[in-house]
## 1
Amino acid sequence: MPGKEILQRIERPEALKKDEPSWATPLAWVTRRGHEAIVELLKQHGATK
């Protein structure tokens, strides 16, 4: 399933995520590009920004 591969690629330690601007998150990128299926997948796995 390609969704799991995407999630594995974007997983990073929490220390790196806390200083990340909201526009630079994986969820923000796929939302802006209109990839609704990936948006839903990220949200199911806990993405909030």
Note: The first helix runs from residue 2 to 10.
## 2
Amino acid sequence: MTYSETIKNSFNLINRNWQLVAIQFGMMVINFLGFLIMIGIPLGIAFIIFGLDLTGLAETKDIAGLFSDPANLLSKYSGLIIIVLSSFLFYMVFATTLYLYVMGGSVGVIGRSIIEPSFRFSMKGFFAEAKKIFFPLMWFSLFMGLILIVIVLIFTVIAFVLGLLGGGITAIVSFAKSQDSTLALFLGIFFTMILALIGLIIFFITLAITTYGMAALFFKREGAIKAFTSAVSFLWNNQPSFWLYVLLFSGYIIASFFLMLITFPFKLIPIIGTVVSFPMQIMSYVAQSYFVLIIFAAVFVFYFDAEIKKPEVLSPSTDPAASEVPESPADMNMQLDDISEVQAPQQEETLQEKDAKGQG
């Protein structure tokens, strides 16, 4: 399947299940309300209980003075810090659980719509798919989180090595400055672009493995580790799938940039700008949610066509035409001799009958 066909099918699939975009918006509203209830209200109550006065923190120097004595700050507001941290952790657990549940239902609806083109969205089907894939998706997310930690550690080691080599690079650039400023500028940009390119490639590879791993998780019903290995193997054996994801994500970044350009100028307008920018921000979030679902749908469509719906190839044991071994010329000559030997007596009998009739 070509890229254009994949993207076209993904748009048709999401347009047919547009309710998924509404559910994404509902998740945003619930997260916002949850933030106010779980963090905002406890924080306000804690300020009242501990008598914390924030009027003296209007300037940056006041905030710096507040953190000048951390021991005194911890002893004075230890209860407030515990309440804030507990509320924040509880909110993070709530928001993550809600996100995984909604994502599981969305992924399930997208995958089922690909397997069954006649499938139509329903809240009952959404909740059924969400319950079915929630725990596998949770374990897969935890596993990818561990992979991300490993990548961060590897980056730390690389940064340390580059720090050791940084002196040599700096010396090269300094020497180039003494010779030619243009050469120094070129070398500085060159080394920066190499580091940025390496980071960008690793970033895209990680996201691609995560997304295709979710496809393997749904279609193959595999565990977290098997889904990860299946995604890596699929991306390695079908490299166009990686470039498809790069194309989709690049399109998402470009679309988000244009949406930001449209909504940002309204914030600069006094008073009315805040009122106008609020619905624009909501529309921007809805559009971004739509594009994210398009990415998932395109990845699932491409993965299903390339990995799940493979063309059936008949093996020699099942193919009747392949099981028939062509006869050699010697075998054909032997068969012709056998046929001639059988036909010879029959011809002699026929001649004897004709002679008998002629004598009679």
Note: The CA atoms of residues 18 and 290 lie 9 Å apart.
## 3
Amino acid sequence: MSRLVKISCLLLFVLLLSCTVAKTTSVTPELRRKAVTIKILTPEEVGSRKYSIICEVSEFSEISQNVGPSPGEVEAAKNKLKLVAAKADADAIVNYLLEINIHPIHGARVVVCTGDAIKWTE
């Protein structure tokens, strides 16, 4: 193998490794702590409390089986949704919807969680 090919392979490996490390370290301890405090609430749980919608949040998790999502896959999508809401400094998520879709890029079946990140106003 030529020296140029070896160097190219090494650079590609380093690039891929750095992308993986950057992705796994993007959740700071503070963000993780905030995310675990965020609840996904039903209308009954919200009751008459007043809130303002910060933004819509949406996340997905791939389904590994053809029969439907496992509880772990649903939980993974919900946890990702909470991280997005935490980045928006939300207090909770309302108007939550879970769907099974086909990923538009690679065609895998995915669990998609969508909701509204909110801040309590009272």
Note: Residues 22 and 89 are 22 Å apart (CA to CA).
